[in-house]
């Protein structure tokens, strides 16, 4: 046995030390004329170029298609994001031995109940408060007069423009107040007062959330088991789990932080005597979902509300300062401490996502911009960045001729 093993080792070593025999080129490739190979190479280049042009055209046309089809794509994307965020709640209910359909129904009804409560806490007081704007414009102008006096050279122009704006706004608001019915007190009344398309969008989104959640376990199992290899199934499961974990944890954490921020602002405004403090806290919490621009808009609305209520300029600006201070504390201390570095997103990417989805779908698009960015970032991070250029020009059809030439060498 030892002699046989030694002989085999000697043979392997001899083969390793001997010069490698050059394999003859495949007979099929050797018999292909150079003209035919050049024609195939040109054809491959043409096909790859057409594929690249079609891909660029599809990417360029996608934003306009999303904008034109906003009535379909906006509720679809919003419903999918809400459904992904509700997956942990669904799984918790299913672990309590509830059927998937019943657990999905509880998730949908719970979300609609929360949305109805938010509407009742924000929309109803906002209708009542801002209907007083025509009567308070004079007070707002008096509070802003010290600021306007700083611009003496433009005083006449500013006064004329402000008077025209005040007169036009007072007339329009008075007509709207006379012709407008009572503000909606619930989600049902808002749907009843709105166009039928709003009802269809809400019904369409609720159905998507329900059916997505009710079939979530089965779809995930089928997606994973349909992979051809164990590594592919493992990668698919990792991508799905990362998307659910990152999206739900971000939305859940940010929701808790925004609710705490709104509650702090509401308590502070209640202490200083601002009317409807819960409404202002809800507005601040809702707008804080939009990074950078949302807190600025909330501070501007609070400044307008303070100018409508208080007669002193600096006291009227205190609600805006409270919003700015609370947001700075939340954005620089609380959120980084709680969220950490797991969901760190580049500010440039956030601005690009906000501008893009805000242009495509307006304010709802701005609210959905960060969750969409998180989903895309998670998928790319887990699945890997697609090497489109390498697929077309290095590892794809264009590499065939080069590989043949390398084999010949």
Write a concise keyword list for the protein shown above.
single chain; 409 residues; mainly alpha; 18 helices; globular
Structure report:
The model is unreliable at about 1-25, about 170-180 and about 395-409 (pLDDT under 50). The protein starts with a helix and ends with a helix. It contains 18 helices and no strands. The protein has helices at about 1-15, 25-30, 35-70, 70-95, 100-130, 135-150, 155-180, 185-195, 195-215, 215-225, 230-270, 275-285, 295-310, 315, 320-340, 345-385, 390-395, 400-409. The longest helix has about 45 residues, at about 230-270. The radius of gyration is 32 Å and the shape is globular. It has about 400 residues and is an all-alpha fold. Helix content is about 85%, strand content about 0%.
Q: What's the tally of helices?
A: 18
Strand elements, count: 0
- β-sheet strand percentage: under 5%
Class based on secondary structure composition and strand pairing: mainly alpha
Outline: globular
Biggest beta-sheet profile: none
User: Termini distance?
Assistant: 43 Å
Order of helices and strands: HHHHHHHHHHHHHHHHHH
Taking pLDDT < 50 over at least 5 consecutive residues as the criterion, the unreliable ranges are 1-23, 169-181, 395-409
Mean pLDDT: 74
Q: What Rg do the Cα atoms give? A: 32 Å
Helix content: over 70%
